[in-house]
Amino acid sequence: MPARPAIITVMDRAARKAGQSLRxxxxxxxxxxxxxxxxxxFVSKADMKAERILYDDLQIARPGWGFLLEEAGEIEGxxxxxxxxxxxxxxxxxxxxxxxxxxxxxxxxxxxxxxSWGDVYAGVVYQPLTDELFWSERGKGAYLHDRRLxxxxxxxxxxxxxxxxxxxxxxxxxxxxxxxxxxxxxxVAGIRRFGSASLDLAWVAxxxxxxxxxxxxxxxxVAAGILLVREARGFVTDFRGGSQPMERAxxxxxxxxxxxxxxxLLASALx
Length: 271
Hints:
This protein is an alpha+beta fold.
């Protein structure tokens, strides 16, 4: 493997520091103070504490960079500098219910000349309980620790295990989801909904899942995961096949052969 890039080392260090905090709070999850943000959408003290750790560590490591944070929102950096896109606890509901499936997601996004935000060029997804660090830098591949990752080689839908997210109270379009589900489910070996989009995409990159679709996610949920899949030689598009899925908040990921087949099913369901 190539030498680990300096930017990955910076993100690795910050993610592990925040992960230590999450592990401690996860052990005391029944005592956490939780405030309601919206319908079926909660934020814990653990979530905010992890975000603060990430912010403080990354601000020191890269002065002047901006931030897009799940809890604190957008913090502008110096003109022309990148920004961090961070979800400090992707899988908050799992965490609060004592389900050991959640992650920290950190990505670096480049500015465009017109002032908008362009592609992600580095990212990590870290699962604190399993100590799995998925990372990638554009053009250098995707890795789990030091092992190179590639998407699944399966080509037949009837052998494919597909991940998704299910609309719930106050979030998502259930009618649209049902149409897609009813189109895809009869064709595949199984569908999973584990509750952490960043890990879903990391697992597609690792070949654990063969594909993934979901809509109505925020950039911090998926920014690092999209790069992981693409650097693992997979494809990520929106539901129409467009190459900028974050702009439409629609995500379809798989290897080349399965992506084409899933896209046809999904497009048919949306007609």
